[in-house]
Amino acid sequence: MSSSQPRVAIITGASRGIGAVIAKQLAGEGFAVVINYASSAGEATQLVAQLREDGHEAIAVQADVSSAGDVKRLFDETEAQLGKVDVLINNAGVLKVLPLAQHSDELYEQTFNINTKGTFNTLREAATRLNGGGRIVNFSSSTVGMNLPGYAVYIASKAAVESLTQVFAKELRGRQITVNAVAPGPVATELFLHGKTEEQIQTFSKMPPLERLGQPQDIANIISFLVSPAADWVNGQVLRANGGLV
């Protein structure tokens, strides 16, 4: 790859929410970005059009991260259109708050298939296909440190992601690739706000010492740092971003 070509970043689950803000942030910093989506084709296409209109290089690639075949195709299509991957952001995830005893087999499997197996699939593909000196950022959650009732299965799926992060960082020795995770607290996205009363939202807002919800841009700023040369010495870490909540 010539030095004139932009670095390439795949962001999973990037058609909306935090993922879309991360895509805009990295595009603005000169990355060619891949907007991965599972089913939100309209939103992904719209985001790509917006980024291109602003002069950035962007493509949308449909892939279900829980499918190893889809993840391989995600990398194949990225390489064919933009070149080899430099940065992988594992943002795709699902959350259903429900007591452990009320989880169905299907809900358990969906949670682990997307949150944990999805991360495993992309890491495994990245092991041989990421450029040397690359960056990987996985998504955990600050709930791992809070142990909130109703979050048991979700927390378990994200705790596994933290373990994958820390071991994989060591397994990539010699490649100059860093592997870290960001673990947000409550962030004011449509996904978080949906179905909550104003009172519930205010309760969450007051929990951190900084007395507000996180914003998607707060998380995008951290991603920006972790993929930059400034974070060369940060590796195998889980960065909790929650305003001091835990």
From TrEMBL:
Gene3D superfamilies: NAD(P)-binding Rossmann-like Domain
A single GO molecular function term of this UniProt record: oxidoreductase activity, acting on CH-OH group of donors
SMART domains assigned: PKS_KR
Domain Ketoreductase: start-end pairs: 7-190
Oxidoreductase found in the keyword field: yes
Transmembrane segments: none
The keyword Aminoacyl-tRNA synthetase belongs to this UniProt entry's keyword annotation: no
Keywords: Oxidoreductase
Pfam families the record matches: adh_short_C2 (PF13561)
Organism superkingdom: Bacteria
PANTHER family, alphabetized: NADPH-DEPENDENT ALDEHYDE REDUCTASE-LIKE PROTEIN, CHLOROPLASTIC-RELATED, RE15974P
Protein family according to the UniProt entry: Belongs to the short-chain dehydrogenases/reductases (SDR) family.
Protein name: 3-ketoacyl-ACP reductase
Organism, as annotated: Pseudomonas fragi
